Task: inverse folding
């Protein structure tokens, strides 16, 4: 106590409530973003294991075209041409290349389809939560009335 009175001790910095809240929200967003990357890597290795070479033809495995194809695959589509038709016209890969990459989908086990569906659902949830956190961060940045 004597040292405190003599000002020999420096007190720890304790951020105010607003700053602590900001840190908590940004930390959670960082964790979710890491989870999303981990899930993307798992999805890529899962597709390789199932002999579906989609990641070699699309720049973003979680982009709109790839997601449409993966969702149809998870929902039971077995025709590579039907899956390739779901791709955006701006995609560099040709429908023939996509059909070739998706050729193994005809023999894809129902268990793989269910696992794929689970991964896509988890991804959707993570994206939704990241969006909610972005909104929270935007609200925290607004000047408070007063």
Result:
């Amino acid at each position: 106590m004597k040292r405190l009175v003599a000002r020999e001790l420096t007190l720890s910095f304790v951020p105010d409530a607003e700053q602590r809240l900001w840190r908590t929200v940004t930390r959670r967003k960082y964790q979710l973003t890491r989870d999303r990357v981990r899930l993307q890597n798992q999805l890529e290795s899962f597709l390789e294991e199932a002999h579906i070479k989609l990641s070699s033809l699309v720049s973003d495995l979680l982009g709109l075209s790839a997601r449409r194809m993966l969702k149809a695959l998870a929902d039971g589509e077995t025709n590579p041409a039907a899956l390739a038709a779901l791709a955006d016209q701006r995609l560099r890969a040709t429908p023939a290349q996509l059909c070739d990459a998706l050729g193994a989908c005809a023999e894809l086990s129902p268990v793989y389809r269910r696992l794929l569906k689970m991964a896509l659902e988890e991804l959707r949830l993570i994206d939704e939560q990241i969006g909610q956190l972005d909104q929270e961060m935007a609200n925290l940045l607004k000047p408070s009335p007063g």
Remarks:
- The chain is about 65% helix and 0% strand.
